[in-house]
Each structure stands twice: as C-alpha cells, then as structure tokens.
Specification:
The complex is a heterodimer of chains A (253) and B (420).
Chain A: E1 4-15, E2 18-29, E3 33-37, H1 44-51, E4 61-69, E5 72-73, H2 81-87, E6 88-91, H3 102-112, H4 119-132, H5 136-139, H6 152-165, E7 170-174, H7 182-195, E8 200-204, H8 208-214, E9 217-222, E10 225-231, H9 232-237, H10 242-248
Parallel strand pairs in A: 3-8, 3-9, 6-7, 7-8
Antiparallel strand pairs in A: 1-2, 1-4, 4-5, 9-10
Helix pairs in contact in A: 3-4, 3-6, 4-6, 6-7
Chain B: H1 3-43, E1 48-57, H2 71-76, H3 80-89, H4 96-103, H5 110-120, E2 128-134, H6 137-143, H7 160-171, E3 175-179, H8 181-185, H9 198-229, H10 234-248, H11 251-265, H12 273-297, H13 301-309, H14 314-342, H15 346-350, H16 371-379, H17 385-415
Antiparallel strand pairs in B: 1-2, 1-3
Classes of the chains: A alpha/beta (253), B mainly alpha (420).
C-alpha cells in the first residue's frame, strides 16, 4: 500500500447559508489515482477545490475542518496559497488554455515561480512538460501558434502540460474528459496512467467506466457526504453500501 | 385557423418586421444625409478665401527702413502709409468717401500682409511687386455668391460704388480664391475673414490631453479594483450605483461643480484648457469606468482560474491575463469617452471658455476656446461670414469624432483575442 498524501478530517464547506460538504473524511494515497464519483451537485468538485484552496476565489464560500498534505495543514489562513498551488496543480472541466502561444501557456507557470532562469531552461521545461502530456509530437513545430487554436483534446492535454510545468506533487482533475470525444478521452486516460507514476492524482468523473479504468481508489459522494471509499475494484464489484450499489448500476443519479 | 393559415400569418409577421426595420434605417440615414449635406453645403466655402491682386510699390519716401533690415526693425516699422497708398492706387477715386469705400474692400490686416511680404524678402525697397491681399468679409461673401446684390443700396452693406469696383476687379481678373490659411492658423477675430479655429483647435487638444491623462489611469485602476479585487458587499454595490448615476448626470452640472470648486475655491485660472480638462475628466470618468468594467467582466472566469491554478497570485492573474484581454474594450471605451468629451460644450461655457480669445494658447494655462464652444460663439454672431465658419468648424469637429470612433473600432478588432 502507498503512503497517505492528503488527509481530510471533518471537512465542511458552506456556500453562504447552504452547506455543500458535511464532515468529509477522506485519505488519498501518494502516486495513485483516486476517482471521485457521485451525482451532480454532490460536492466532488467542491472537495477537490479545497485541496488547492480554489474555493478562496468564491467570496461566500467558507471552509472548516482540516486538510493535510504530507501532514501539514493547508486549510489555514496563514498558508501561502501561491506555493500551495505550485505543489497542487489543477485541470478543469473545460479546457482553458490562455489565449497565448503554446509555448507561453507552458512557460508561464515556471516563469512566475522563478523556475526557468534562462531561455534554455525554459525551453527544456516546455519540451519536458509537453512530452509528459503526450502532446510534444503534435505541436513541436508550432510552439508559437495560439494554444486556443488546438483541438479540444489537444487543448486539455496542453492544460495538463501547463499543470505539470511547475512540477507539482498532486494534480487535481475536475471532469477533464467531459468536453472531449472518446478518442481524446482515451488519450487523456492513457496519459493519466502514465502520470500516476510521478504524481498523486485526484479525478472527478461522471463516467463509471472511466473511474474503473484509471483509478485505484474510488470515493462515492452523495449530497455532500462521503458514502463509501475503497479500492476501485471493491467499490464497483462489491460495494458495502446500498446507495453506492444503486448509483453504479445506474438506478439513480 | 388551419395549419397553413397559421404558417402564412407567421411569415407575414416576419415580413412586416423586416419592413419596419428597413424603413427605420432609411429614415435614420435620411436624417444623417440631410444634416451632413446642410453642413457641407454651408461650410465647405470657408476653406477658401477671396483675395485681390494689387501692385505694391515699396516707396522709399513712405517707409523709414532700408533694404536688408533686420526682422526686429521690420516688425517695428510702420507700413501704414505704404498700405494706404497701395490700396488707393488699385482703383481711381474722386473723393474721401470713395477712398474709404475702396479701402473697405480689403481686410483690416492688409498692412500686416504687406509687412509679411517684406519679411519674406527684405530687398524690396524701391521695387514693385504683385501681392494678393485678402478681401474684406463682405467682398468674400459677395464673391462666394452668398451676398444678395439685388437689394436696394440702403439695405446693403456694400455700396453701389464698391460693387462697381468689384465688377471691375472681376473683369480684370484681379480677384481670385485661395486656400484659407487663416481659418486654421488664426485665433478668433471680430472680422470673419481673419477668424480661425487655430486657438480652438489647440485649446481642445490641450483639454482632451489633460482629460485623458487624468481620466484614463483613474478609470482603469478603479475598474480593475472594483471588478477584480473589491469584495462584493453593500458598499461596492452603492459605489456601482453611483458610478452609473454619475454617467447620466447632465454635463452642465459638472460645469457648475468646476465653477464652484476649481475656479471659486482653488482659484485656478479661468477659461483655460487646464480647468476644462479637469472638468471633462470628472465628466468622462464614469463613462470610461462602465465600458472598462464591462470588458473586464467579459473575460471568462476560466482564464482567471487557469492562472490561479498554476500558482499565480491574484495580482499576477489579473495583470498578466485578465487586463491584457480586456485592453481592447478598455481602449475603445476610453476613446469613445474622449470623443464625447471633445464635443462637450455646456460645462465649458460655465468655466468661461466662451471668452473672446484672439491669441492661440501656448500652454494649458493660457485662456483659450475649444471647438464646440467656437461653434456656439460663431453661431451667435451676426456677420454673414461666420455662417460658413460655423459649419466648417462643425465639419472639423465631426471629422475628429469620426477618426476617433474609427480608431476605437479598429483597436477593438485588431487586438481582440478570441477564446473558445
């Protein structure tokens, strides 16, 4: 078994008066893919947005409880979110490359963190990141073209490359394939398989099949509560909870 | 009603709507054409002036300076006698009334024009040259066909004798039309043939420059702060409502404000582009903030999230990503705001820009006029010559506005980046 990378304890999230997460306790293992499943609005995205404190952007959002990464509390107002997000990258549901060149999309992160001092170092980071995201061969001759001109699947891999470029420890993926066709999805899934050797990955997905294919551990959310967590095989073959059983067999959701 | 009837009815409704839309556009265009045609037909003649060709003899007995005189000597010399001599020789007269009538055919600045000719060539003493002297306003209008010469003599400003001289000049080809350099180079004048928009142009330029320098940074920073950094609460809501209200406040109210605060309390010099610029900046601020905020709002949140997710700080995500994307909208909003300020008259009247200013301002703290105020001033003047000047000034103002609006559209299209 791998070590625990991220640990949440009694995590509660409120949007104004509405509570979105109720006492979520969830451990995520290092260098593993954890899939979070559950019906829409159940709090999966809210949960992963707590891990890199993206919820800070929303004025009315309040988070209580603990999240630890490597044993260090991150839900702490004194924590520097910039260095947290350097360690915890994120890929969004809709590909959101910057309207800049492919090169600038990747080099932006390293630049602001002072990771590529010289042009050569930056070139190297860009190449490495694109190779890891399995996009290098497709774009190496047009690095100066706008990132927004790529196809949807390529854009999403560009966003993955952008997340990798700052060399994070954790990558959060919020339904990364929901806007993509099956072929692009397959490429991303292959990529996730490869990336889990280096990174701890948390993926939110609506596709059961995808959860089975890419994850080692699965958590089932319902109405802001975590219903069941366990090894993916177990969750999908022999869940303990009736609700989980109903959801994965498509009886509700 | 059958299905076919319903379908026909729907098609008819659509056709009717198209017809209404088209006719509205035609009506709107018609008004524009009437307006522009009216302005052009009245104003285009102001760009030409009537000149009369006369022979100038620099008689050494009538002038105290010598050939090769320095510039200072020429400027301080008296050319009055030579001027009178020149004008009187241009047509035979019998008595002093006729002499006066003859001299009145020429501009009151005839002496300055002759002096200028001598400045260009200071070796003319004892020589004769042919010079084109600007005609007086009445002759100018007569020659341009704007003067009713069939009125009885007692109701005309031009006497029968003057008409006789004019006809003689026309026959002997002494009268000509030249480009009206005075219209662009001179300040205001009581004599229409000498009046120009030079002062108003410079005044407007300084005013708009000061307005831009004050309003643009304040408006952009305020919009960025309000849109990206300020918490959304009752105070910011209150500020937003106030900004929208300020944009709708009649401009004359800003004039009153400037009159009270800038002129009465702070005692800034009145009728100056400095005060005009500050007043216009106050007025333009909300009008720039609104489009500025709109263009910031139009940047999709996913761009901000993308930047934050790679570890950019809030400041970096705003200034590296959001602001560059909002820039085209911001710039075009600013230019349109400035174009409105350029055409603004009411607040400037209150701060004394209606003063009669002959000199062209050399700094923003010199008394000055501005283009729209010049239009207002000349439209009030009785002299026939100011009618064409008024329209010509409107033409200049309109062309600046058109250029600014085209620039705004161009900037928006050129730098607009598309995202998904």
């Amino acid at each position: 078994m791998s070590d625990i990378k991220i640990k949440s304890k009694n995590l509660n999230v409120y949007y104004g008066d509405k509570q979105a997460l109720f006492d979520v306790n969830l451990d995520l293992n290092e260098k593993e893919v954890t899939a979070l499943i559950g019906p829409s609005g159940c709090g999966k995205s809210t949960f992963i947005r707590c891990i890199n404190r993206m919820n800070d952007v929303i004025d009315i959002c309040k988070v209580t409880g603990n999240i630890e990464i490597d044993g260090i509390e991150i839900n702490d107002s004194n924590l520097d979110v910039v260095s947290l997000r350097e360690r915890v990258g994120m890929v969004f549901q809709k590909p959101n490359p910057f309207p800049k060149s492919i090169y600038d999309n990747i080099s932006y992160g390293p630049k602001i963190h002072g990771k590529g001092e010289t042009k050569n170092e930056l070139d190297e980071i860009v190449e490495k990141s694109l190779k890891k995201a399995a996009l290098w061969e497709e774009v190496k001759d047009r690095l100066n073209e706008p990132g927004t001109g790529l196809s949807g699947g390529q854009q999403q891999r560009l966003c993955i490359a952008r997340a990798i470029s700052v060399n994070p420890e954790v990558i959060l993926m919020d339904e990364p394939c929901s806007a993509l066709d099956p072929i692009a999805t397959a490429k991303i899934e292959e990529l996730i398989d490869e990336l889990k050797k280096t990174y701890t990955i948390v993926i939110v997905t609506h596709s059961m099949a995808q959860a089975v294919r890419v994850s080692q551990k699965t958590g089932f959310f319902h109405l802001g509560k975590i219903i069941e967590v366990g090894k993916t095989e177990k969750i999908f073959k022999n869940p303990d909870n009736k609700m989980t059983q109903d959801y994965i067999t498509g009886r509700f959701g | 009603m059958t299905k076919e009837e319903r379908l026909k009815k729907r098609h008819r409704a659509e056709k009717r709507f198209r017809f209404y839309g088209l006719s509205s556009i035609v009506v709107a265009l018609l008004f524009v054409i009437i307006l522009v045609n009216n302005i052009f037909s009245k104003g285009s003649s102001a760009f030409m002036k009537t000149v009369i060709n006369v022979e100038v003899f620099f008689d050494p007995e009538l002038i105290e300076i010598k050939n090769g005189a320095t510039e200072d000597e020429i400027l301080s010399a008296d050319f009055f006698d030579i001027t009178i001599e020149t004008l009187l020789k241009s047509y035979p007269t019998k008595n002093i009334d006729e002499e006066d009538g003859l001299i009145d055919l020429f501009t009151t600045d005839a002496e300055i024009e002759i002096k200028k000719a001598f400045l260009d060539n200071n070796n003319l003493i004892g020589k004769k040259i042919n010079l084109e002297i600007t005609a007086s306003d009445d002759i100018d209008q007569l020659h341009k066909g704007n003067y009713p010469r069939d009125l009885p003599e007692d109701r005309r400003r031009i006497s029968n004798f003057q008409l006789e001289i004019y006809d003689n000049f026309v026959e002997s080809n002494k009268i000509d039309k030249n480009f009206n350099n005075y219209f662009f180079n001179n300040g205001d004048s009581r004599d229409p043939e000498l009046a120009g928009i030079g002062g108003a142009l410079v005044g407007s330029f300084y005013s708009i420059l000061i307005c831009l320098l004050l309003a643009f940074p304040v408006a952009v920073l305020a919009s960025i702060y309000l849109e990206e950094f300020a918490p959304k609460n009752k105070i910011t809501d209150f500020i937003e409502i106030n900004i929208n209200n300020l944009a709708a406040v009649p401009s004359i109210v800003y004039g009153l404000l400037a009159l009270q605060i800038l002129l009465a309390t702070i005692q800034l010099p009145r009728s100056t582009p400095l005060v005009a610029g500050i007043t216009l900046a106050l007025m333009t601020l909300p009008r720039i903030i609104i489009p500025c905020r709109a263009s910031l709002k139009a940047v999709p949140p996913s761009i901000r999230e993308g930047a934050l997710a790679v570890g950019a700080s809030k400041f970096q995500s705003v200034f590296h990503h959001v602001v560059p994307l909002a820039l085209p909208g911001t710039l075009s909003g600013t230019i349109i705001g400035l174009a409105q300020a350029l055409g603004e008259t009411a607040p400037l009247i209150l701060i004394g820009m209606v003063a009669f200013v002959v000199d062209i301002p050399s700094t923003p703290v010199d008394p000055s006029s501005s283009l729209p105020v010049q239009v207002y001033l000349w439209s009030e003047s009785a002299e026939r010559g100011f009618v064409e000047k008024t329209s010509a000034t409107i033409m200049m103002l309109l062309s600046f506005l058109i250029v600014m609006n085209i620039l705004a559209v161009y900037l928006r299209q050129k730098f607009e980046k598309r995202w998904n």
